[in-house]
Amino acid sequence: MKIFKPIKENEAKGRVKQIFKDIKKTRNITKIPNFWRSLAHNPDTLQRTWQNLKQIMKKGALDAVTKELIYVAVSITNSCEYCTRSHTFAAKKKGATDQMIKEMIDVVGLANQNNKLVESYHVEVDKIYK
Amino acid sequence: MKIFKPIKENEAKGRVKQIFKDIKKTRNITKIPNFWRSLAHNPDTLQRTWQNLKQIMKKGALDAVTKELIYVAVSITNSCEYCTRSHTFAAKKKGATDQMIKEMIDVVGLANQNNKLVESYHVEVDKIYK
Amino acid sequence: MKIFKPIKENEAKGRVKQIFKDIKKTRNITKIPNFWRSLAHNPDTLQRTWQNLKQIMKKGALDAVTKELIYVAVSITNSCEYCTRSHTFAAKKKGATDQMIKEMIDVVGLANQNNKLVESYHVEVDKIYK
Amino acid sequence: MKIFKPIKENEAKGRVKQIFKDIKKTRNITKIPNFWRSLAHNPDTLQRTWQNLKQIMKKGALDAVTKELIYVAVSITNSCEYCTRSHTFAAKKKGATDQMIKEMIDVVGLANQNNKLVESYHVEVDKIYK
Amino acid sequence: MKIFKPIKENEAKGRVKQIFKDIKKTRNITKIPNFWRSLAHNPDTLQRTWQNLKQIMKKGALDAVTKELIYVAVSITNSCEYCTRSHTFAAKKKGATDQMIKEMIDVVGLANQNNKLVESYHVEVDKIYK
Amino acid sequence: MKIFKPIKENEAKGRVKQIFKDIKKTRNITKIPNFWRSLAHNPDTLQRTWQNLKQIMKKGALDAVTKELIYVAVSITNSCEYCTRSHTFAAKKKGATDQMIKEMIDVVGLANQNNKLVESYHVEVDKIYK
User: With pLDDT > 90 as the criterion, what percentage of chain E qualifies?
Assistant: First the structure.
């Protein structure tokens, strides 16, 4: 179906063209990834999603690499391959090493296991954690 | 049901008693949390889970705070309240500030939204990410 | 493995053949989709699933398009590509426009984000909602 | 922990106070729900989330009730009780009947069942759906 | 909200009353659990769900205990407390021992961990498994 | 990315080589599956995961086939294709019949549907189940 085919960069007009330009500059890339070309079917969605992402993923109390690793951890838990691959790529570009990624994966595996052990035994929240 | 009631500390014997001792010492706490008291119904599970956790969560290429934040991010995505509360507590004890936790939460919200936008448009993985 | 290969239409016999006929007539299609050909390995499952679907998806207080959009929203949340594609197809056949689908996607993204913000802050249910 | 306690309305200042005022006016309510009072710990998050929600949930090609029902369908699938209750409330306020809600629930149950049947049999996407 | 309050047994009429009677007889219980009393808001849903359950959960190539354990394993993975508790109860009534339940929980934990390791490394399906 | 390419068997050294040998012997196979070759990027993870799996999946109060079926049920619920395929293969190798697998699938579909009906109606846990 048409809405499932990403829009071509040279077909972008007006607001979409502007946002594509900002994405390439901010990310220091020469081609717009499929994600943004897909969202371009809906310029409001493209603009809102890009603005949200720029605001949230910039360095703050957490550095940019840590934020990307957290993003990837969520994406693995949600089984989203595109999201895992694109944000692992971003994490590495921002300085994450292979060892950091592998340790993040171990934590994700452990958390998923223990989350289910907690559910299994219906563990009540200890007072100290409230 | 009986297996859903955490074992009392003073009822712990043998291997379970030893592990409880190690948990209190390693974590610098005086009471065993409900999670470990529940796993104690199955000493093999208790020992394996505690050994896994000690191995994975210790400082490596990622520091211990970052690992706790990743653990919490997964737990939020899985809607596990106990896990979120107990590991937010651990993260703060190891040095995470409120601002760091709030930024982690923002990344988790964003990743969950964008993961679903990716699924919606069936976005194919760009070559550069493979 | 054999159970993962859809049954061919011309191999359908007895009850399965009858249900295939009903599917083609009800849906106004000429080929049985892979989903139903897979379920046909288990005639009871095929019959139960088809009867459930006919009963639930027919026009009621909600029109058929709205029901398909809700179905797709759930399938996106579950990351089921086949389900998303086949029911987006059904929604369009029943009258959904591209704009309706894009707005549904935006709601799905928003709900997934806010669901996680709610989990993050352990928000208690307000009295007015109970 | 402090970040898990909603901020009191009379403690809201500056930007947060303004947004609280806008929420009450737009929603025609007299008390700020716990969700918004929790997000207020992070004024950027509060503002972004409220703006996103206003933009996405307003009447478009889909009417406001349909959007709320889709929101609830996602929230059920994610097991988020607060989200289910608060948006079922919103749906009813905007005109949804009990019968509409019950039919939405049936679709959600069916979609969740069939999503898993699809995963079980590894059903390949039919050409017609691409 | 009214649809969230289970219907009382002595208010059940007609078809609902008949199904309640069948549930009590089949399950050998004297009180209708909250689940069925909630579904009774929608007699079609009640009837369909009860018929589906009777057909699927009866002894076949898998015995009734194994089916209940599989049901619980899915419910833990979905974080559904009611489902976990009610079907653990059913499993025990049909003969499951505490040791069987604890071993099931271990498998659930392991599978959830390994599922995420598979997603993390984007492991491709080996030919032998297709 | 390199960490997403499985390590070749003839490149395995030291501890990894030993574990690969144990996997082939224990499983009675001649080629190491992609899963273990991927984990080998991180020898600690490989060793821990293989030890956990051997300990948990061996015959106990539950037989080995039942454990594999429970593993598959979780993997379907998590939409992990690799996991579903590899452990369905394992289940069949250990004696599961096609009929057993199909019945397991029916239970998984039913549980996923009913889990969501429970969430929809916010069903409270009956006293008898606690």
Answer: 96
Cβ-based contacts under 8 A for chains C and E = 13
Q: Are C122 and B84 in contact (CB under 8 A)?
A: yes
Q: Please judge whether D123 and C56 are an interchain contact, meaning their C-beta atoms are less than 8 angstroms apart.
A: no
d(CA D123, CA C33): 10
In tens, the pLDDT along D59-107 reads 999 999 999 999 999 999 999 999 999 999 999 999 999 999 999 999 9
CB-based contact E3 D106, cutoff 8 Å: no
> Across chain D, how many H-helices and E-strands are there?
6, 0
Confidence of residue A66 (pLDDT cuts 50, 70, 90): very high
Angstrom distance (rounded) from CA A117 to CA B35: 8
- For chain C, list the contacting chains (3+ Cβ pairs, <8 Å): A, B, D, E, F
Residues B82 and A124: their CA atoms lie apart, in Å, by 7
Residues near B19 by Cβ (< 8 Å), separated by ≥ 6?
B36, B40, B43, B46, B47, B50
Contact D1 B102 (CB under 8 A): no
Type of residue found at B109: G
Of E79, E89, E106, the CB nearest to B45: E106
B80 vs D: CB within 8 A: no
End-to-end CA distance of chain B: 49
Q: Give the separation between CA D102 and CA D109, rounded to whole angstroms.
A: 11
Measure the CA–CA gap between D55 and A46, rounded to whole angstroms.
Answer: 13
- What is the rounded CA–CA span in Å between residue D53 and residue C115? 13
Number of helices and strands (H, E) in chain B? 6, 0
Q: Do residues B80 and A111 lie in contact, with contact meaning Cβ atoms separated by under 8 Å?
A: no
Contact F74, E111 (CB under 8 A): yes
Report CA-CA distances (Å) from F119 to D92, E53, E82.
18, 18, 9
Q: Residue E117 is encoded by which pair of tokens?
A: 């390791």
Assess A103–E contact: CB distance below 8 Å, yes or no.
Answer: no
